[in-house]
Amino acid sequence: MSTSENTKVALPAMTHTVGMPRHQKIIFVLLLGVLLALPFMVYPVFAMKVLCFALFACAFNLLLGFGGLLSFGHAAYFGMASYVCAHAAKVWGLTPELAILAGTATAALLGLVIGSLAIRRQGIYFAMVTLAFAQMVYFFALQAEFTGGEDGIQSVPRNDLLGMFPMSDDLTFYFFVLAITYGGILFIYRITHSPFGQVLKSIRENEPRAVSLGYRVNRYKLMVFVLSATFAGLAGATKSQVFHLASLTDVHWTMSGEVVLMTLLGGMGTVLGPIVGAAVVVTMQNYLAYLGAWVTVIQGCIFVVGVLLFREGIIGVLSRILKKPL
Amino acid sequence: MKRLAWTTVAATALAAATPALATDVKLGVLNDQSGVYADLSGQGSVVAARMAVEDFDAEAKGINVEIISADHQNKPDIASNIARQWYDQDNVDVILDVPTSSTALAVADVTAEFNKIFINSGAATSDLTRANCQPTTIHWTYDTAALANGTGKAVTEAGGDTWFFLTADYAFGHALERDTTAVVEANGGEVLGSVAHPFPGTDFSSFLLQAQASGAKVIGLANAGADTVNSIKQAAEFGIVQAGQKLAGLLLFINNVHSLGAETAQGLQMTTAFYWDQNDGTREFSERFQAEVGAPPSMVQAGVYAGTLHYLKAVEAVGSNDSEAIVAKMKEMETDDALFGKGYIRKDGRVIHDMYLMEVKAPDESTGEWDLLKQVSTISGEDAFLPMEDGGCAFALAE
User: Fold this and answer.
1) Do residues B103 and B27 share a domain?
2) What is the pTM of this model?
3) Does B199 score more than 90 pLDDT?
4) How much is the pLDDT for A18?
5) CATH, residue B19
6) Contact A273, A313 (CB under 8 A)
């Protein structure tokens, strides 16, 4: 299996324990504390952007780190969900939670369709199939009426939450986004540490053996693909509410690449890795923006250095030093 | 924000010399500093804004101006994020330039939300003063309607009465084709057909052969950027212009023509709001500009200069940085500068000034590296831009 060969080296051993280990409980509490304080330290919109990408990377990590499936088309779910969410909020006048749900549901459906075809192939073919579908989604977004082509969907309103609570203030909305992201991350943690997650890991490590043990491998793969697409969609839909817009950037293939970078840099197959990776990449893009095209070059260099020196990613290395799964 | 490139201009006048009623204004130039539009906007626009401040002699008039700039990478989410931070945290009063339609529309909305001022020069979409108009938006240099109107009308009237379109297959391309078709037909011309090419495209040969076979006198290029440049290059390889058909670029800048070279682009017709070699005023400005930037100003950069100048005049007249009063003043005062001549700003924020139909010179006519265009005709502002009544800008029509 080419996928398992790739992942075996990089992954710290994950032992199955009942409930959350104590150090991970502490980590989640600390994470919540940091995220609660974040908007008071940095610009709230920037903080929300970090959250959206953290969730996106976590969703991607669910598929790559735990399912061992490298998708090169996650921008499709991220972007399409952001379009549908923006359309729902702007044209149908839905409240944020319903609009985000609509976007997420679209991503789930898209994930089901693409996933059921893509999981029939493995390794590089799987990656190429997902990329091909993502390109189809991109050109759909470019051509379709409702997406506004290259202008995107602009001035998307942020309606009152549940029709009652005004959300126009960025700081207020931050805590809504925080609830979504934190909930999403906990949910992904729950998935990966469930019996279902254990089966996924066994498929990742040795697919033929999982088959011989009687698991319907393709069903597990499809399930994790759809779950990953759904959370990617949740992140994308939330992002369109944060920025009041949905655009081709979100559905472009570079976005698929960025999420791979975030996950690998932070540490694939770890809980905290994608969050750290997303924070690092988004911060770099934001604070080095004045360097223009050099940002991409710097990103590339960091990626090369990361692959050569610490293949486990930032959190992977930390986890190895501390000898605890993070 | 510390992360943004700072260009501080005339910020610190001696405290003693500052009049008691000094107004502080902060200009933010937000554009593409690294991508495909960096040449026609980019740092050149920052220089243009600074030259406007210097030419206006803002300091002596009691206005302290600070200019900051940032790269929006042509991504609307980055643009809207920067605009938000500028208005929210950095007390920026006005955002200038902002090329590409998607980023401009995003910034227009953020500006309205914060009730600041947005003087756009770089973006093409006419929606900025139509369906998506905002009371805080001023759209300076050009728009798709003016390009379609200018090139479509002038070329048809000049005898190019049969057209064939080469259209980029996405919303912008189709909109440009539709608008130009309407203009061509209204002026007695005929559209023989069109072909949509994938966006972005690299190989235009089959589309160009179709265009050639159509026998149309004019081939309209309803695309932009690299697509336009590539289609013109390949048309030159087929000898389409030499064979008697004319190319009409619907969205083309002097920088594109320069990179194509007069040899390849000769005979190409295009509409522009500004050309550096028009009169003494534009030449004087362009000479100073070129000394600093290395290339003469594009129409986008010229628009940033003119917009900044007009804004500063309004600030002086109002005597504060109150956005609403300044916008009202800007729309009330006639615009008048060396680059665009006299004009005015409509209620919907559209700046009305003359546009020009230009033709790319043949290599033997050209006397210098940048001596690329010759004027074919002048299109008056009223003819070039779409009437406000047809625009669908709700707040302007309600008044």
Assistant:
1) yes
2) 0.80
3) no
4) 58
5) 3.40.50.2300
6) yes
